[in-house]
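Hey, I'm writing a tutorial for new members on how sequence and structure tokens pair up, and I'd like a real worked example in the thread rather than a made-up one. If someone can provide the structure for the chain below, I'll link this post from the tutorial.
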Amino acid sequence: MAEFVKQDFSGARFEQVDFSGAWFRNVYFTGATMRGAWLEDVDIDGEIRNVRINGVDIVPLVEAELNRRYPERSKLDPADADGFREAWAIIERSWPPTVERAKRLPPSLLHERVEGEWSFIETLRHLVFATDAWVRRAMLGHPEPYSPLGLPHDEMEPDASVPNDLNVRPSLDEVLELRADRMRTVHDVIRSLTDDMLRGETEPVPPPGYPPAGSYAVRRCLRAIVNEEWLHRMYAERDLAILEQRE
């Protein structure tokens, strides 16, 4: 079985190629064209925009179905400060049932990955990192924003200033305590948010670190957090259902 990691196939042409059983992770298909494709028993999870299948733009259909399944989802792309407060309240009340579900599993399973995705503990660690990066570093200008337990995204280039210990195995209680602290930080930031602040940018952050040096739109920082929190809870719920069958 061939394996391609960090390869650039931009502009490549594939013809009469068999992808049966293939696995794609963190891949970009922007501008891709498929003709005469056979999609059967295919599972796609990702960001989709302007995706046409047999001449039909499926994005509005998918968005409508997701909003039907999760009515609060439509409120997670707010335009003003009050909207962000409502969005964060949704995040705050969404996580406790997921955490309680995880607590019912044996602790060892909370470190187990499903199909190569992050374990439940790793997911929580990544959300700590997201808050450290976009809120503590970018928005608050904290000189030492990162927790040693934070877990950056896999695609991030190595940076000695950013902790990234893949071998550490903290307990659920340790990570939940850290998570509670970071969620309070976001809560406090959003509670004091104004529309004027939301339209502005952060003070420039210096190198090294993530996000890279520069200024960032405040809305972008907060949107990143809300989006990460919502999506990773959904991923966690998906994987917990599989882990529950392994007990």
